[in-house]
Amino acid sequence: MTDAKSAQTLRIGLIGYSFMGSIHAAAWQSAPKFFDLAARPEIVAVSGRDGTRAGEFATRFGIGRVETDWRRLVEADDVDVIDICVPGDLHAPIAIAALEAGKHVLCEKPLANTPEEAAAMVAAARAAADRGVKSMVGYSYRGTPAIAYARRLVEDGRLGQIRHIRARYLQDWIADPDFPLVWRLQRERAGSGALGDIGAHLVDMAAFVTGQHLAEVSALTETFVKQRPLPEASGGLAATAGAGSGEVTVDDAALFTGRTDGGALASFEATRFAAGRKNAIQFEVNGSAGSVYFDFENLNELWFHDHTLPAAEAGFRRIHVTEPDHPYVDAWWPPGHGLGYDHAFVHQAVGFARAIAGGPTAAPSFGDGDYVQRVLAAVEASAADDSRLTPVPAAGA
Fold first, then answer.
1. CA distance 112 to 108
2. What is the dihedral of CA 157, 158, 164, 165, to 10 degrees?
3. Mind listing the pLDDT tens digit for each residue in 112-125?
4. CA gap 374, 391 in Å, rounded
5. Which of 3, 156, 213, 396 places its Cα 20 to 30 Å from the Cα of 278?
6. Is 106 exposed, middle or buried (0-12, 13-18, 19+ CB in 10 A)?
7. Quick check: helix, strand or coil at residue 297?
8. Per-residue pLDDT tens over the stretch 145-197
9. What share of the chain is helix, strand, coil (3-state, %, to 5)?
10. What string of DSSP letters covers 110-135?
């Protein structure tokens, strides 16, 4: 039975305390300060295998309880939402257990490490939805106002028939061959490398903006550094090397092309070896009536070309996405002051809290996450088969 406190508070159990745990915690705490929510989110507990580090995290964010076994949060009567911010090998067991226990679930991306795990998570989410339990996967860039506004332009028909989708996600954080073998470089923990870590964002972004889904792909992947020193210590995206070395079992870079179910041609590039690029996301859509272009290094800007104008006055123009009429912006600062990386996670938290309260359906859904997982599987299958054109498996296949 819901008590008086839980009727006014959305009680969060956060699993994971590193990079993603920190930004999720900050987002939950910021959300009610800027947006009207039916229930105020409160992180009541955090779980992590290292009790000391989890305790330090709890102190920093003012969280009252620390657990070293995630099952304690799933079983707890004073937790309404399980927020999963741990490596991919734990996503499926935690999410399924939480949904079966009647907890709402927000799960970091990619949804799972394999299509089979993703399918099981979707099945659990659908069964839970029949009991009013909500679920969502954390493709946070959907909450970037410029990306959300690009989607609005497509929905309003301003681009006409979509013909090209072009997307790149470039980082350099493991370009140093002496960078240690952290969990993101191990298939058994991460599922895949740059493909799943950052390429997954591009696949979701393309579907979100255009409403189209990849039907088939042709791919190349590469692991440039195959052996790395074992880590002595790690946290977030940083690590220090210790003694010994181990094998890198994921891709360092992925490059793939494809055709969508709407007939558009698409190209994607994801790498963590682009020297000088820290978090460069570049996304362009070309249609019969116009184009949009986005670069995360200028995340408050969207470039738009209206191809219906006379050639003498046509061309790309900058839209500064900081006006109250733009998605999410009216809750924040005066026009022109801009938002940052962290704000997308606040918008994610707001969307999930409102869905739990009976508002719009939580999105992206576990079904959306399953679609991305199926694309990743097709990319790996194509790369392993000399870039053969490979269909994206249907849901449930």
1. 9
2. -90
3. 999 999 999 999 99
4. 10
5. 213
6. buried
7. helix
8. 999 999 999 999 999 999 999 999 999 999 999 999 999 999 999 999 999 99
9. 35, 25, 35
10. SS-SSHHHHHHHHHHHHHHHTTT--E
